[in-house]
Structure formats: structure tokens, C-alpha cells
Amino acid sequence: MKKYLILLLLASPAYLASAQDYKTPYLTKSLVADNVKTVFVNTSGGSISVKGGEEPRIEVYITGNNNRDLSKDEIKKRLEEDYSLDISVHDGELHATAKQKHNINNWRKSLSIGFRVYVNKATSTNLNTSGGSISIANLTGNQNFETSGGSLSINGVAGLIKGETSGGSISVANSSKDIDLQTSGGSITASNCQGHLKLETSGGSLKLQDLKGYVKAETSGGSVSGNNIDGELIAGTSGGSVNLMAVAGSVNATTSAGSIHVQMTRVDKYVKIDGDSGHIDLQLPGKQGYNLDVRGDRVSMASTGTFEGQKDKEHVVGKVNGGGSSVEVRGDGSVNVSY
């Protein structure tokens, strides 16, 4: 077992940086000889970053409250008095923990302790911070991470990805396989991803770009916009509009308080649209066959191919081009279907 007690190392000048900020690490420890496959990081007041594909090492960044500059002697003193700071490596597992020993009555003496970890690409993570952002990049494996007060950033990650924040935005790009991301207070941006995606926010917008696979994206307090999505898309909001362009596959789009615009370049099994308020615009490929069930306060239907069924002011039910994919639209406002 290789165990590194950082409080013992702090006295060594080889581990001390000349400036205590987030540009220069307070402590750096090589992980080249440890063959780390799993990273566990837990800190109560700083950010966490894990990146694959670089020289294996861990860096510790420490600042005073509100990013106040502190001397290395002052940081060392506060660590010894108020914090438990430990790094250990055993059987390919890296554990890095920073936590308060007791309640600090004077908040001015609190520290922000962050970690940046560089490992091999084939590494899994389990990360937790109550007061900072989390960033992971260029990794494969299982990734689990959570913060109560910061943003999440995921880039170039393949595997099982599960992340949650209670107070920040989420950005995921160039990632794949199984992605589950949630925030209670920010927007979500997803781009150039594929696989099974579940994206959920209670207080922000959703922006989707260049996605492929199964995508479920829901918000309780913002708009949903998407472009160039191939697969099955379920997109819903309770407080905004839905705007989806260049969608190929199947789509289920809903809103309780806004308009819906959907442009399909290919329809597979179904299109289902439900809008409680606002108008609905749906554009379909003209040469396909559909089973239509379109209802609204006022329905406008463009002509294409052959139609068999019933049309009137408030609903259109029937088959286009002999029937085929299911198209179901429900709206309390005007509904416009074009080809």
C-alpha cells in the first residue's frame, strides 16, 4: 500500500508552490508508478477536474475564502488546525479527500481546496464536492459525479456517465454510450453525442445539437431547442417553447406554456406533439406515408400526395400516401402542417 499523508508533505519545499492560486498548484504528486484505474475525490469547498491522456499526477489547489491570496505558511497553519487533507493510492485506486475537522466559526478562515487529476484514459471516477464545479474529459469507464454548488463539464467521455448538480449549468460534448445528467438550477447544453441520453433541469433551457440515439430532454422552466438529431427524441418543457430543426427518426415534443416548431427530415415510427398553449408548426417530408390525427383550435394542412380521410377546421384524420408513420398533434392554438 502506498499512502501519502499530505499534512506531512507540506513541510517539504519540493511540494510547495510559490503562489497559492488556481493557476499554480499548492501540491503536486506524480502517479506515474501507481497505475490508477479508479479515482475517488471528495472535497467540501473546491472544484474537481479529471482528465485522461496526460502524464499521471494529482495537483492540489488551495485558496482562501473568496479566492483570497494566502501565504504557504498561513495555508499550512489553517490546514493543520481546521482540515483533514489526505491522498492515498492502493491497488489502482486513488483517494483524495479534503474536509473540515470541525465547524469553523470564522468563515474568513475557511479554505477552498480543489483537485486536478491527470490519469490514463481508461479510468473510472467517483467525484463529490459541495462547493465547486466538476470537469471530466478524455476518459472511458464509469463516471459518477455530484456537486451542490457548481457547474458540470463533460467532454470526450465514453462509457456510463451519471452527474448531478443542485446549482449550476451542464455542458456535455463529444461523448457517448449512456449519459444521465441532472441540474436543479441551470441550463443544459449537449452537442456531438450519441447513445442513450437523459437530460433534465428544473430551472433552465435545453440546447441540443448533433445528437444520435435515444434522447430524453426535459425542463420545468425554460425553452428547448435542437438541431440535427437522429434517433428517438423526447423533449418537453413546462415553461417555454420547443424548437426542433432537422430531426430524423421519431419525436415526442410537449409544452405547457409556449409554441412548438418541429422540422422532420425523416419520420420513422412516430411524431407526437402536444401543446397546451401557443401555436404548433410541423414540417414533414413530402414523399412519405402517414397516418394523421391532427387536432387544434384551427388546423391548416398543406396538400401533398394522396389523402384519404376527414378534414375540417379543427381536425384532420386520415392517411397520406397510403398511410405509414403515426403523426399525432394536439394543440389548443393554431396548428400548421406542411411538407
UniProtKB/TrEMBL annotation:
It comes from the Bacteria. The keyword Signal applies. Keywords: Signal. InterPro entries: Toastrack_DUF4097 (IPR025164). The lineage of its organism: Bacteria, Pseudomonadati, Bacteroidota, Sphingobacteriia, Sphingobacteriales. Residues 1-19 form the signal peptide. Residues 238-327 form the DUF4097 domain. This is DUF4097 domain-containing protein. The keyword Methyltransferase does not apply.
